[in-house]
């Protein structure tokens, strides 16, 4: 029955009523906070294209983890900037590498903080691609061995979750097999299952010193025009043993988040990427938008689409405002 008997505005009259009929929530427990760890840094280094975000020295990690935990944020995801790089990215699994040290430092003080270790080689290669190069592209199968050894290294150091992000075919199978072989069967795999060749990663390249050379990543990351392909990628990763699947970026791919959640009914992560963060920060700095409100609305849209958890650079900033 329509107007005048039905008046939907009745349910919007007060905040109390609006909260009671709210269909979607955004809670601090939904957030994952990224941390950039710079092995050569002796102090915090601001990232120009990401206001409020910094590279941290290893010595500053325990204090950072304390702050994140006190905010109620349940998880962090670590990205390493090593002092030395090579053509193959072998430094990613070398004993005592930057992420191994970072995991141990955080777990010493905050054992209840969930530590996710990004498993990719772009920060560790001199050319900035996600694996060794052969015939002007990333050598898929050679990369699998390196990332599997890297995942074992991180899991042994204490990572609760390993997150392969290179979009190599068979990456989840390679990692799951290696983890299980070494008795690390309880280590969770969060796969970057649908990672697009997006233009929104620019600020991350600065943050992680991972700009690529020679060719772009479109030969291994997904075409932004494709939706069905994402479903195939997710299905394969789940079959290979992924526990959580991720869609990256999030804001331009809400339809993909929705499809993945609807079709598979598994835990879904969304990555609110650096470009999405930087655009809101830039617009807010110019006085064009209310940055906090737009950030909240953006993250809520990801939850509404079906994301169970969100990796976001807004985590520390927005956590104190949630529930208010």
Automatic annotation (TrEMBL):
Q: Where does 5-aminolevulinate 2 bind?
A: 274, 313
Q: Which GO terms describe its biological process?
A: protoporphyrinogen IX biosynthetic process
Q: Which NCBIfam families does the entry link to?
A: PRK09283.1
| SUPFAM superfamilies, sorted | Aldolase (SSF51569)
Organism phylogeny:
Archaea, Methanobacteriati, Methanobacteriota, Stenosarchaea group, Methanomicrobia
Stored PANTHER family: DELTA-AMINOLEVULINIC ACID DEHYDRATASE
The molecular function terms in GO held by this entry are: porphobilinogen synthase activity; zinc ion binding
Q: Which InterPro entries match?
A: ALAD, ALAD_AS, Aldolase_TIM
Q: Would you identify the family this protein belongs to, as annotated?
A: Belongs to the ALAD family.
Class in the EC hierarchy, top level: lyase
The catalytic activity of this protein is classed by the Enzyme Commission as: 4.2.1.24
Subunit structure, as described in the record: Homooctamer.
Q: In which pathway does it act?
A: Porphyrin-containing compound metabolism; protoporphyrin-IX biosynthesis; coproporphyrinogen-III from 5-aminolevulinate: step 1/4
Q: What is this protein called?
A: Delta-aminolevulinic acid dehydratase
Query: Where, by residue number, does 5-aminolevulinate 1 bind?
Result: 205, 217
Which species is the source of this protein?
Methanocella arvoryzae (strain DSM 22066 / NBRC 105507 / MRE50)
- Which residues participate directly in catalysis? 195 (schiff-base intermediate with substrate), 248 (schiff-base intermediate with substrate)
Source taxon at top rank: Archaea
Q: Which reaction does it catalyse?
A: 2 5-aminolevulinate = porphobilinogen + 2 H2O + H(+)
């Amino acid at each position: 029955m329509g107007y005048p008997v039905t008046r939907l505005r009745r349910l919007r009259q007060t905040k109390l009523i609006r909260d009671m009929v709210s269909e979607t929530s955004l809670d601090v427990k939904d957030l994952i906070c990224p941390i950039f760890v710079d092995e050569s840094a002796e102090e915090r280094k601001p990232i120009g294209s990401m206001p409020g975000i910094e590279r941290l020295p290893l010595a500053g990690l325990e204090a950072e983890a304390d702050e994140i935990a006190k905010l109620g944020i349940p998880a962090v995801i670590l990205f390493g900037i090593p002092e030395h790089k090579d053509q193959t990215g072998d430094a990613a699994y070398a004993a005592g590498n930057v992420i191994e040290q970072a995991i141990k430092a955080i777990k010493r003080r905050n054992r209840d903080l969930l530590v996710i270790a990004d498993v990719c080689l772009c920060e560790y290669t001199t050319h900035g691609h996600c694996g060794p190069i052969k015939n002007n592209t990333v050598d898929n199968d050679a990369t699998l061995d390196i990332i599997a050894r890297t995942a074992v290294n991180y899991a042994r150091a204490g990572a609760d979750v390993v997150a392969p992000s290179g979009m190599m075919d068979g990456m989840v199978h390679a990692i799951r097999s290696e983890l299980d072989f070494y008795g690390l069967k309880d280590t969770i795999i969060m796969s970057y299952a649908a990672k697009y060749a997006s233009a929104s990663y620019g600020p991350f390249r600065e943050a992680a010193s991972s700009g690529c050379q020679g060719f772009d990543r479109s030969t291994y990351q997904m075409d932004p025009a494709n939706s069905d392909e994402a479903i195939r990628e997710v299905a394969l990763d789940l079959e290979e043993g992924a526990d959580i699947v991720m869609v990256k970026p999030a804001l331009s791919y809400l339809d993909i988040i929705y499809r993945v959640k609807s079709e598979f009914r598994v835990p879904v992560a969304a990555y609110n990427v650096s470009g999405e963060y930087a655009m809101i920060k830039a617009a807010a700095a110019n006085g064009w938008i209310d940055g906090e409100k737009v950030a909240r609305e953006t993250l809520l849209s990801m939850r509404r689409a079906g994301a169970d958890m969100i990796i976001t650079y807004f985590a520390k900033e927005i956590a104190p405002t949630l529930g208010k």
